[in-house]
Amino acid sequence: MPIDHDELSLKQEISRLENELSIARARLTGVGTPHTLPQLSGPFALPIEDRGNDGSEETTDKQLLFSTSQNPSHTLLHLADTALPLGSFAFSSGLESYLAHHKPAHNAGPDILPKFLNLSLHSLATTTLPYLIAAYMTPGALQQLDDELDACTLCPVAKRASISQGRALLTVWERALKVETPPNAAKDALSAFCAALRAPSTNEVDDDVEFHGHFAPIYSVVSRAQNLTLHQTAYTFLLNHAKAVASAAVRAGVLGPYAAQGVLGGNWLRAMIEKAMETQWSRNPVEAGQGVPALDVWTGRHEKLYSRIFNS
Question: When you count CB atoms within 10 A of the terminal residue's CB, does the N or C end of the chain come out lower?
Answer without folding.
Answer: N
